[in-house]
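question for whoever is on the cluster today: can someone run the full assembly for these? two chains, 654 residues total. i dont have access anymore since they changed the login thing
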Amino acid sequence: MAASASPAVSGAAPALSVRRLRKSFGPVVAVDDVSLDAAPGEFLSLLGPSGCGKSTLLRMIAGLVEADGGQVVLAGEDITRVAVHRRNLGLVFQSYALFPHMTVFENVAFGLRRRGVGMPELAPRVERMLELVRLGPLGARPPRELSGGQQQRVALARALVTEPRVLLLDEPLSNLDALLRDEMRVELKRLQERLGTTMIFVTHDQAEALILSDRVVVMEAGRVEQIGRPEEVYRRPATAFVARFLGRANFLPGTVATIGATGIVVALDGGRLSVVAASRPDLVSGQPVSVVVRQESIRLEPAGAEAAGPNRFAATIVFHAFAGQAHHYVIQLGDGRELEVAAPGATPPLARGSGTHVAWSPEDVILLPGGAR
Amino acid sequence: MKPGSGWRLLAPALLLLLIAFVVPVGMMVPTSLRPYVPLVGITGGFTARHYTRLVTDSYYLEIIGRTLALGLTVTCATLVIGYPVAFFLARTRSRGRNWLTILVVFPLMLNLVVRTFGWIALLAQNGLVNQALQALGVVDGPVKLLFNFAGLLIGLTHIFLPFMVLVLIGAIQNIPRDVEDAARVLGASWGSAFLRVTLPLSAPGILSGSILVFVLTISALVTPRLLGGPTYQVMSTLIYDEFLSRLNWPAGSAQSLLLTAMVLALVYLSGRLARRAGAHA
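^ ran it for u. tokens below:
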């Protein structure tokens, strides 16, 4: 697991380290030997399906769930056994978890009051934070009079006003409708860049993780599958799970036929077709592999065009749907195999049943050793 | 829902309320204003004497004061004992939870008279409690625990505790765990989070549980009669005696109407209080 930090933040001592953290609930292992580092100012996402242990991991960092083993290290200090309220972390919940019996102002002031900040200093700090999340005039309102997006901004202000060493966010955007979610994403990212707060962001939404993060931690069944920059986990997934979970992809089982200087030729199961992939050193001839091709990596070319090249096949359109940004096609290759293809939405659509050619470059082929799970 | 269908849904309950509550209570109003002559009975005429006596005669004032004091102490006792139990039952995820809930409710399934006689056996001059207290050297002689305030307080607290616990469980379960967790992450210790977040948010439950227990206590009859004996009176036993022993229906009616008025006033005030709190919460 090569945890490469983003260039902007590499080199510095981690703001937060998780060392071999474990947690079981009865027979169910929720978090299984997880280690990761977050660099100062980094936006790190924990991405995985529900039940993969990402929320439990976040709650262990916050101290709300006691770890069975392992360590949580905050700026060099082991806080594994430190009480929740002494950790000086921020946590934003999916449910907002605002205090319904307090005004917006009092909600934001809560953490400062617990730290003994007196009124002359407290009021301007709360006001400034409310301005920052664009809630300036709403301080006197009770939370229930605010919209979902505003409530989540209050929660964000409440967590940030104490200047926590690390801000933890547990699916904070999942309760918002799609349009508002996009807005809040941008706002969250800007806020993070402006304040430079280290953020650990739990989500099951792969697009959200890719857009927001400096690095993404992909989790499954309590374990870390891959840690990397968004482009890395998307373009070079370490496992079939990561490849499936991030984006839509076609999985073609095959066997490594030849390894040459220009590329690796994989004979697909079924025997009639082969795919060329960019060369890499760790594969041997005869090894079973899974060829993964993202749906947007596949180009559709008019049937008549005679451009030669690798990974070029005749195909028939069997399904078409228009989704605004893209056309979604299902195409059938000569051997009966079906592939999903996404073409830019601006291109003229191809009719169902019409013949075409599909092609993709060897650099866009992902090879996963051992075949698809 | 169609307009007017609400009335049709409420009609059976409203009819029952009218027949079983409004009409009898209403009928007591004229009775309570009739003079009563011992050995003769209710006579014609009009008098407010039954009311004026209630608020001037020290005998009645003492009973009214005792009834209210009992209601208040029983309410506080059930709240103090019941809140931790309710908090535990609302928050635990242990498998024993259902059994514990049954244990809390179990006293309600026993006959009230049986339970009260149980307390007589325990609290008597020579009962288990006095024996234990003397054996432990807490007291020298037996303590009087029957036919006085202490006896009623113990018996009524036991009997009405389940109501308080059940109401509080519901209220505490309604508080999202995330809200408490948020307070703790923000720097509040467990105790501080409880005082500043959990307790204020369970206020509606505390209010309705308290009203319920208070009203049940001041109108309880069987337990005060058995644990208080024939002489240690509260309002309900006084009314009972007035109607059935002394056959003084006018005085009994006046006392009943006062008790009803006290209960209604309390329910009304608590409703306003809850609305005011609701406007803030």
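summary bc i know u wont read the tokens: The first helix of chain A runs from residue 54 to 62. Confidence is low (pLDDT under 50) at residues 1-10 of chain A.
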